[in-house]
Amino acid sequence: MAFYKSSWFKYLKNLIIGVGAAIVMLGALFKIQSWEGGGLMLTIGLCTEAFLFTLLGLLPPEKDYYWEKLYPGLEKYDSTIAPITEGEAVAAINGEVVEQQLGGMLNELQSMSKSLGSLKALQEVDFAGTSEQVAAMSNFYTRMNEAMGNLSDSLEDTVAYKDQLAALNKNLGSLNNVYGNVLTAMSNIGGNN
Fold first, then answer.
1. I need a labelling partner for 83 at 20 to 30 A (CA). Which of 17, 19, 103, 158 fits?
2. In terms of pTM, does the model score above 0.70?
């Protein structure tokens, strides 16, 4: 905050303005009455006032407040002034008017609240064990890849085993036919004797 906006500076400025104005008035009184010291007092008071007017010219102006928006009719001399929270003004205000005046301010505040809630949740997250968790996940993925490789090898072995079983089944079928033929032949030979 700038020093000229501080309360001590404002108090000091008002004190110097008041004392300077008092000295000017007393100096004028002493000069008019032709009393001794009037010229000196008038000179000191006017120099003080000149310094203060220079200082006030250099300082930025204070913020203007538009009170007539809160108190309609404030700019009129003979108006009856009541805040917008009383009387006819309240009757004229309804939900739609308030919503139009506020615009999307409520939505923005809700959005900000959600964002701040997310930031608070992120602040509360403990990242202390994160490196160990990443290392454990890396180890898990390495073992998973090894298992997938073994499963692939196992699948190839299973396909080869299945092919061998199919060939064996075919050979057994042929052997069964041969054996059936041998039995038939043997029974024919035994029946011809």
1. 103
2. no
* Backbone φ, ψ for residue 126 (5° rounding): -95, 115
Question: So where are the chain's domains?
Answer: 9-60
Using CA atoms, how far apart are residues 136 and 143, in angstroms rounded to an integer? 11
CA geometry: angle 44, 47, 52, nearest 5 deg? 125
* 106, two tokens: 């409520």
Q: Which class for 167: exposed (0-12), middle (13-18), buried (19 or more C-beta within 10 A)?
A: exposed
Instruction: Assess contact for 67 and 74: CB atoms under 8 A.
Output: yes
* Closest to 67 (Cα-Cα) out of 79, 83, 78: 83
Q: What is the pLDDT of residues 92-150, one digit of tens each?
A: 555 666 666 566 677 777 787 787 777 777 666 666 677 787 888 888 888 888 888 88
Number of H helices, E strands in the chain: 7, 0
pLDDT digits (tens, 9 = 90+) for 81-90: 665 555 555 5
Residue whose tokens read 């205000």? 93
In this structure, the chain runs to a length of 193
75 with 46: CB under 8 angstroms?
Answer: no
pLDDT in tens, 35-61: 898 888 888 888 888 888 888 888 887
Burial classification of residue 46, based on how many CB atoms lie within 10 Å of its CB (0-12 exposed, 13-18 middle, 19 or more buried): middle
